[in-house]
Amino acid sequence: MSEDLPDTLSSAVEVGGDISKVTPARLLIGRAGTAYRTSTQLQLRADHAFAKDALNATFSLDESPMKELAERFDLFEVESEATSREEYLARPDKGRRLADGVAETLRENCPSGVDLQVVIGDGLSPLAVTSQVPALLEPLLNHAAARGWSVGRPFVIRNCRVGAMNDIGEALDAQNVVLLIGERPGLATAESLSAYLAHRPRTGDTDAQRNLVSNIHPGGVTAEDAVWRILGLVDAFMIQGRSGFMVKESARPTSLSEASGR
Amino acid sequence: MKRSVTLRGETFNFLDLRELMARANEPKAGDRLAGIAASSERERVAAKMALAEVPLSAFLDEPLLEDDVTGLIVDSLDREEFAKLRSLTVGELRELVLSSNFASEWQRGVKGALTPEMVAAAARIMSARDLITAAAPLRSVTRCRNTMGERGVLGVRIQPNHPTDDIAGVVLSALDGLMFGCGDAVIGVNPAGDAIENVVALEHALHDLIGAVGAPTQSCVLAHFTTQLASLERGAPVDLLFQSIGGTEATNAGFGVTLQGLADGREAVLASHAARDGFIGENIMYFETGQGTALSVDGHGGVDQLTCEARAYGVARAFDPFLVNSVVGFIGPEYLADATEIIRAGLEDHFMGKLLGLPMGIDICYTNHVEANQDTTDQLLVLLATAGCNFVMGVPGSDDVMLNYQSTSYHDAAGVRELVGARPAPEFAVWLEQTGIFVDGRLAEGSANGPESLQAFAESVKELGR
Q: Which HAMAP family match (chain B) (predicted)?
């Protein structure tokens, strides 16, 4: 058996006293027979109830915190082909396409052919957008501009799926598109955001041509780290002239304990 | 081919085998989304009746799709064995797999004589109990660093995911799972980041953990297979090579996967095992699948999602995998709408995988945007345990804090083993007794019972090491 046994286990035993330092996972929670303790069982039900509610939350560009963001970055809103939340859930194909006339709206309101086009989509958790995007958008756009990239006018897509990036690429011919979109709400957090990235997205592109920075929330990847990783990936796209699974991120994400300053 | 059925005076026509298969399927949101589902319950049952009369040979004469997956399926068919079955109809195949002595016939050769399409056809004219009863006697035993799949064994994958891949968080989560007797199938983490450095760090961490506690099991970091191979080149220990796969060439292209790439990857990992200790077999691949995958990447080619799923098993079968599981409630309500569809799909996937000879497990799960809940996973878990499922997932408190969905928990896995009298893998069971996690084949009173248990486990592992 390995020599480092005491270290591996004793450090785990030490951490075991304060699990939340290293993970949001539900560890060492005891049991009743092989079932959950009553407190665990009811907490799971409560968290599920909140996650279900987060799905149907909405945000408006006329209300805080999106209002301030809209004023500062001149945000405007367009829609996918999905016209209701119900249709959005049942018909992902509609969420992947921009509604009729939106391509023209985009061409009228946004510069074409920019190096970086940032787009905000509600996705499955509008709450994730209102919670994470305010801290993320400004540093992302500032750092991009500081690198000498031309940066497009950001906008919001209502009832948006990741595949909408293809229509955006077709409409605006951006070199790189970053879609900030609410992830499926989980039990530990309903506020997790993803950034999907694509180089020159076009009709027919799939996830194989996209890269992803996920779990952007205070208990996961911080806004600061997310910006750094997004910029790193876009750098790689520009050098390699492509995006997708062939483009690997070059460094491991900061650990939770470091990210949260512990 | 044109087939028609008249049901109480109403005639239903089916254009071809592909359409007939789609119409005969049980209700699935994904088939509705693709516009290929039956338009009424009457049409659905008419299609089932027509399908039951179709001879198995029709599936070779009339391929539903022409691509490299079809090529692989046709090439790997045992023609000699199939000759004995070719005149059987789908309805007769259903009765054959339900017959009391089928398991020995299957073992003797029938499992190599069926294509995924034939299996997928039979599944859609079977009830839930049919799917359970037919699957239960079929065992697929595989070996990597331990032995999975023997009769009476229910394995558990520890899934210690973390939103930022924090090593201490992953290791602590895995230790918690071990104390429940989980982890014999694999300790397999889905990385939050696909960076090579990140995957290398996780691979070393899991390998070191397994070495430190002395558990006879295998690890896996479920990054894209090309990333795992890149980490292997950097000297990381890769026990199992993982990849998500689909049942059509277009689906696999959407995942950045080719059949040749998988074959080359398997060879590379096998070669690396030759230089390491502890491997007792050459089943080293781990695949995940799920109904609706092909449609989600627009790679279904008009074929229904049950058939696409079976074809994914046809792909898996060609690589002698150690583990295969469908992730049955993960994909969302546009493919499996609710608890009814998820439970049905879980039973179908398990049956089809087993009949095709795979070491089939199921990630019994649901997301928060589907009409399902903890009762759904509880129900499917009990059903699949009675069906002889090879393994299920163990996620702490059922809450995957990285992928944001709920699967079966360490508690659930330990509980269902006790409920149906299932054991862990034999080598792992010995280790569980040595460490005091199990006493006489059952979870010990003091194990997995809060933070104090971890201290006791560490002490017993230390004792074992002396």
A: EutB
Q: Does pLDDT of B415 surpass 70?
A: yes
Q: How confident is the model at residue B151 (pLDDT cuts 50, 70, 90)?
A: very high
Residue at B39: amino acid letter: S
Contact status, residue B131 vs residue B351, Cβ threshold 8 Å: yes
Whether residue A167 contacts residue A202, with contact meaning beta carbons closer than 8 Å, is answered with: no
Size of interface A-B (CB pairs under 8 A): 238
For residue B308, what are its two tokens?
A: 């696409």
Running DSSP on this structure, what letter comes out for residue B100? T
Residues 6+ away with beta carbon under 8 Å from B92 = none
Q: HSE-up of B41 (CA within 13 Å, CB side)?
A: 0
Task: Inspect the interface and report whether the beta carbons of A255 and B164 lie closer than 8 Å.
Answer: yes
- Whether B92 and B159 share a structural domain: no
H/E run at residue A199: strand A193-199
Nearest to B368 among A2, A51, A246 (CB): A51
Strands (E), B263-398: 285-289, 323-327, 360-363, 391-394
Domain spans in chain A, listed from the N-terminal domain onward: 63-238
Helix (H) or strand (E) holding B347: helix B339-355
Inter-chain CB proximity A22 and B166 less than 8 Å: yes
Residues B268, B404 within the same domain: yes
Contact A245 B226 (CB under 8 A): yes
A232 contacts: CB under 8 Å, gap ≥ 6? A249, A250, A251
Q: CA of B21 to nearest chain A CA: how many angstroms apart?
A: 23
Residue A93 is encoded by which pair of tokens?
A: 């194909």
Q: Are B38 and B158 in the same domain?
A: no
Residue whose tokens read 């004793």: A10
Digit-coded pLDDT (tens) for B200-252: 999 999 999 999 999 999 999 999 999 999 999 999 999 999 999 999 999 99
From first CA to last CA, the distance across chain B in angstroms is 71
The answer to whether residue A13 scores a pLDDT higher than 90 is no
CB contact under 8 A, B406 and A187: yes
ipTM: 0.95
Q: How far is A32 from chain B (nearest CA, A)?
A: 9
Per-residue pLDDT reduced to its tens digit, B37-93: 999 999 999 999 999 999 999 999 999 999 999 999 999 999 999 999 999 999 999
**Domain match, B53 and B99 both:** yes
- Residue A252 falls in which region: left (phi positive, over 0), alpha (psi -120 to 50) or beta: beta
Residue B254 with chain A: CB contacts under 8 Å: 206-208
First to last CA, chain A: 33
Kindly state the average pLDDT of the residues B411-431. Answer: 98
Closest approach of chain A CAs to the CA of B194, in angstroms?
7
State the nearest Cα–Cα gap between B5 and chain A, in angstroms: 31
Cα B374 → chain centroid:
20
| Residue numbers in A near B213 (CB within 8 A) | 5, 9
Structural domain contains residue B5: no
For residue B387 the two structure tokens come to 């069906």
Rounded CA separation B86/B63 (Å): 15
User: Radius of gyration of chain A from Cα atoms?
Assistant: 20
Superfamily of domain A63-238: Ethanolamine ammonia-lyase light chain (EutC) (3.40.50.11240)
Total domain count, chain B? 2
Percent of chain A whose predicted confidence (pLDDT) is above 70: 92
Q: pLDDT confidence of B292, banded at 50, 70, 90?
A: very high
Residue B271's CB: how many other CB atoms inside 10 A?
10
Residue identified by tokens 């993803």 is A194
pLDDT at res. B463: 86
Omega before residue A185 within 30° of 0, cis? no
Shared-domain flag, residues B193 and B118: no
Are residues B375 and B395 located together in one domain of the fold? Answer: yes
CATH number at residue B321: 3.20.20.70
pLDDT at A6: 52
